[in-house]
Amino acid sequence: MVAALDDYTIVDLSSGIAGGYCTKLLADGGATVIKVEGPQGDPLRTWSASGAAVEPGGDGPLFSYLACSKHSVVVDPAVAADRDMLRGLLSGADAVVWSRGSAVAELDEFGPVAIEQAYGHLTVTSITPFGLDGPWADKPATEFTTQAWSGGVIGLGRGAQDRAPVFVAGQIGEYLAGAYAAAATVAVPAGLVDLSILETQILCLTYYSVSFHDALGRPFRDRRRLTVPGVASAADGLVALGCGTAQQWFDLCAMVGHDEWIDETSELSITEQANIHAEQIYEWVSENRVEDILELSSAFRIPNAPVGNGATVTAFEQFVERGTFVTNPRDGFTQPGPPYRTSPPLLRSPEPAPRLGEHTEAYQSRNSIPGCQSGRTTARNALSGRLPFDGLRVLDMTSFWAGPSCTHVLAMLGAEVIHVESTARPDGTRLIAGVPVTEQRWWEQSPIFAGLNTGKKSLTLDIRSERGVELLRELVKTCDIVVENYTPRVLEQIGLDFEAVQRLRPDAIMLRMPGFGLDGPWRDKPAFAYVIEDCSGITWLTGHPDQNPVEPYSVGDPNAGVHGLTALMLALEHRRKTGQGVRIEAAMVDAALNVAGEQVVEYAATGTLLQRHGNRGPTAAPQNLYRTSELDEFGRPDDWVAIAVATDEQWAALVDALGDPAWVTDELVHVDGRRDHQDMIDARLTEWCAERTGDEIVETLWSAGVPVAKVMQPHRVGDLPQLVHRGFYERVDHPVSPVARYSTVPMRMSSVTSPLHRAPAPLLGQHNREVLTGLGLSDDQIDALETDGVIGSAPAGLTIRTTKTG
After folding, report:
1. Residue 637: which domain range?
2. How far apart are CA 772 and CA 474, in angstroms?
3. Whole-model pTM?
4. Taking the CB of residue 284, how many other CB atoms lie within 10 A of it?
5. Judging by DSSP bridges, how do beta strands 304-306 and 457-460 pair with one another?
6. pLDDT tens digits for 568-579?
7. Is 655 a member of any domain?
8. Do 542 and 612 form a contact (C-beta atoms < 8 A)?
9. Pairing between β-strand 640-644 and β-strand 708-710 as defined by DSSP bridges
10. 309 located within any domain
């Protein structure tokens, strides 16, 4: 077996989770990752989210997980020979991953812009909170405060209105940024990739809110509401149930014995209707056992899952049968396996994480990477001026969020993406904007569909018909990549599994994105983002400690999309070298288990079960949300700021900005003391913030060097000056909807200067004639297909239920 990136060398100049996870994914793919550390080592070597002590000379379990298969080289920035060694490594590498946080990375010579200028053959991927340029480039931030700026804290209405909203815990933004960085490092042939964690969080923790507000003149949600049922207490433990569609809400009503709640004409959203009946729904759940609820809800096709955490998730039957978890090769604890599976195998088995400086001597003795010449330009790194995916044709058989978010990046970066729908089952995101069916072409007015599908072509095919399947097979022959996220049985029923695709197009790459996998007892379980979050452990850490966990309701889909994209990069590399096609199985839940992996490795290594702590967290103290003196834009006392003090120096800066108040004692100088007195500190900061506006708080603390943020309404983030400067949003016209701003990708690339939205999202069936003519059909044949209902340009019968999900 030859791993996809076996001839690919990466110099890792990053510190922390985002860069560590990025290079883990690349090392899993076979790349030689040379982790450059200062004499003190990456801070993750001494990190434990539970606070467990790391023995001298040992490493924390998260580092041991993320650093599998890497090499460690120590570079002392004060030693000339060490700097020379690093120059040699850079001259022979393919890519560099960089972030702030080490003395080496902070040297001017080894900053990302300087490296790009000095080593033109390299792809240089930089990961920072806000990006390398712009008015906020040098502002202090933590993952918690960037999440507040992103709109992701209020996001999709997380939490009840009588408490502060809650952030998505577990440093999720770092992992998401790492996954995007991994995909970009392989996709972009050379030059600077300037990735922003803020922009990543906007894409993954909010739901195209700016576009929604621009196009429809209203926010996607105007208040926070609990998701009902969400995570609920059954007779013998926690269980998660959800309704992602109107039909699922109707089925839930029937399951709990209240058919009279079903109202297909209601103007209320699913969430609003569920909240009305919450007390009775929770009562029903409390009277039944978890196992019985899961079995019954599966029979009703209602999304469901057990609620996983670091102690329980490894025993869930689906993961046991599929061998989802593996043993850490050095330290023996349990950790997640890779987030995708491929045939042929493109991943290598994990090798032990390196001890600090374990490979320094070996690299010092050769002062370069064997077989590489200074300043080389490989076929992979040749600059062409083309978009990264120019020339690729993609058959996109996906819907909703996970699959389309993956193929959307391909479309924005040059691929021809043909999005297949049917008139009987259009992409579900066309139908959830709450546009009345009385409006002309209402199905074309969803900003969510538009935000996920700019630059694509739309082909409608009824694959329930023999002729529709025949045309789909002909289309497969013309495509480099096939992406689908149907339930596994759909492709089996129409005879279009990977073996069939290979017979039609031997070099085709097929990306399958099932919820729980292509096999196992949960294979056919309905999979929406929230149940993926629930069973993987992501939900477990989110919420207030005295209440049940709160579903993020956002992470599961885009997280699956970006991991699918990363897997595609590996498959494209394999095809480039061998001409062979690849099957990828990128189950949503496997991607979720990877970004929630710290819970499992911490429990397995130390016996400590990580718990939720509201808006507090292990990386900063104090860290919390504080109410300002203002009402929010809806006239409610729900306006907040986020403050996170990550270092003792930042604490001193905060104290100075507050005017050195008398309540600050010597006990609070160091982080341990601040953790012991968090309640008191929170009370004082609550008093101070309550007398000031959000702008006043941010101006005071940011200028002093303290990480702070306004908790943004997600539909307002498009006006943030940093995002305006970086052009994260682009204005796109549309034949039916108003001009609106649409998000792009979370990185700026020096090799890409043109707008990324080259065309608006397609109308339903807009490209039927173009695509089918390309398959050799005549106008008469295409007309006959339309007459027979195989293709079309409007939802069949206009009878589709359009109950809002917001």
Report:
1. 621-706
2. 10
3. 0.96
4. 18
5. unpaired
6. 999 999 999 999
7. yes
8. yes
9. antiparallel
10. no
